[in-house]
Amino acid sequence: MAKVEIFTTDFCPYCARAKALLDGKGVAYEEIYAPNGSEARRQATERSGGRTTVPQVFINGQAVGGSDDLHALERAGKLDALLAT
After folding, report:
1. How far is Cα 51 from Cα 3, in angstroms, rounded to an integer?
2. Every domain of the chain and the residues it spans
3. Which run of H or E residues covers position 19?
4. pTM over the 0.70 mark
């Protein structure tokens, strides 16, 4: 199974939506709390190529984007392949 990391904040509906998709697929993930101004947020921004929003999702170290991007991968039938590696 792939290593999945998701950088989130409190009260973020997009974070909840991304986690719900992963939970629904039975995917284990590491949730990293990343409020504005934190070291975790800086790392997420750097690793994602400059994206400053949350959630930021990484699969096996590769930035896949946020909630909309994760759901787009699912609709395109590409998410399961990424998660299987």
Report:
1. 20
2. 4-84
3. helix 13-24
4. yes
